[in-house]
Automatic annotation (TrEMBL):
Assigned keywords, A-Z: NAD, Oxidoreductase
CDD domains documented for this protein: NAD_bind_Leu_Phe_Val_DH
Family statement: Belongs to the Glu/Leu/Phe/Val dehydrogenases family.
Domain Glutamate/phenylalanine/leucine/valine/L-tryptophan dehydrogenase C-terminal as annotated: residue spans: 146-353
Protein name as it appears in the record: Glu/Leu/Phe/Val dehydrogenase
PANTHER family: LEUCINE DEHYDROGENASE, VALINE DEHYDROGENASE
Length: 356
């Protein structure tokens, strides 16, 4: 059976939702274009063993809208979209599946660019790229951007220093106790930078070997993954999972600043109010962790290294602005950031309407 693309009714505020199926290739996927108001939609492809098609649809809708926010805030001239492939990344991958997916992406004609996300490797994306010019985050090729993690870590580090200045009156991190949760691609790179800046590291990872390595390399203190919120720290840098900031954990958090790479750190939006009440400055995750998408955007725009450097500086400036506005208006930083995005999108829509 050939590749089948089925247009689904996109919810209000979304441009397009397409269900993709190729039985021979074993492909079942969704592509969601949330917004192209700022430019072509860009967002990774996630492969996940979803319990149902409905669960996959809900996930792609949530993730695509998040990409519009992240890309608009980072000033990339890109919109937001996402794709999800239904299947077990450990057992269901094949060349035929990724080629069929690539043909589906090509049919969007450049209104959506895909890249790696959870469950998808650069090797998988290289197969997708055999069928489409709209696959990015590649390791090889004239404009390949490679591993985005170092850029993500650099963006988080720059924002963390802005946060430190706002909270402690200085960007100097010497002796500051910073807890890095998750020593993976981003967390390790961030820990290196913090160590070089003189911070006193506390680390945790479910992978004990990673923590031990940090103990040796950085003289870090190690804590167990379930003891994170019992530590006396100045700064918390969540770089593992989402949903770590809850009403319960925030009540136990000693840090005065939260700045890390993990997506969706707040379990629910109202947790931001708890952080504000506790006088703990939370730097919105989708603003500080945009370094990776900035790196990918350089590939989309065929831009040189200066493009990435400029955009990284820009996210630090945005954080500065968010913190100032939040303090002036007594609003949570996430609310200020969301309002800025609404404003950016409204302006872009005006420009697009005027050009139409
Ligand atoms: P990764 O998989 O390389 O690292 C995650 C690390 O967290 C691993 O070492 C893992 O063992 C550890 N971990 C998992 N559960 C844990 C727990 N309960 N307690 C402590 N440690 C735990 O992932 P990554 O690429 O470094 O990304 C980290 C986070 O940043 C993710 O939430 C990701 O979505 C987000 N993010 C990454 C990028 C990027 O460029 N890689 C960009 C934006 C956002």
């Amino acid at each position: 059976m050939a590749l089948k693309l089925v247009e689904e009714l996109a919810p209000a505020g979304y441009e397009r939702l397409v269900y993709i199926e190729d039985e021979d290739a074993g492909l079942r996927a969704f592509v969601c274009v949330h917004s192209t108001v700022c430019g072509p939609a860009v967002g990774g492809c996630r492969m996940w063993n979803y319990a149902s098609k409905d669960e996959a649809r809900t996930d792609v809708l949530r993730l695509a809208a998040g990409m519009t926010h992240k890309n608009a805030m980072a000033g990339l001239g890109l919109g937001g979209g996402k794709s999800v492939i239904l299947g077990d990344p450990r057992s269901d991958k094949s060349e035929a599946l990724f080629r069929a997916f690539g043909r589906a992406i090509e049919s969007f004609g450049g209104s959506y660019y895909t890249a790696e996300d959870v469950g998808i490797s650069p090797e998988d994306m290289a197969i997708v790229a055999k069928e489409t010019s709209y696959a990015v985050g590649l390791d090889h090729g004239a404009h390949a951007s490679g591993d985005p993690s170092p850029f993500t870590a650099e963006g988080v580090f720059q924002c963390l220093k802005i946060g430190a200045r706002a909270v402690f009156g200085t960007e100097d991190l010497t002796g500051r106790r910073v807890l890095v949760q998750g020593l993976g691609h981003v967390g390790w790179s961030l820990a290196e930078k913090l160590h070089a800046a003189g911070a006193a590291l506390v680390v945790t990872d479910v992978n004990a070997a990673a923590s031990q390595k940090a103990q040796v390399s950085f003289g870090a203190e190690v804590c167990a993954p379930d003891e994170v919120f019992d530590q006396q720290i100045d700064i918390f840098a969540p770089c593992a999972l989402g949903g770590v900031l809850t009403h319960e954990t925030v009540a136990r958090l000693s840090a005065k600043l939260v700045c890390g790479a993990a997506n969706n750190q707040l379990l629910e939006p109202s947790v931001a109010e708890d952080l504000l009440k506790r006088d703990c400055l939370y730097l919105p995750d989708y603003v500080v962790n945009a370094g990776g998408i900035i790196s990918v955007a350089g590939e989309v725009h065929h831009a040189g290294p200066e493009y990435r450097a400029e955009r990284l500086v820009q996210i630090a400036r945005r954080i500065d602005e968010i913190v100032r506005t939040s303090r002036k208006e007594g609003k949570t930083t996430i609310r200020v950031a969301d309002e800025m995005v609404t404003d950016i999108l409204a302006k872009a829509r005006k420009v697009a309407d005027a050009a139409a």
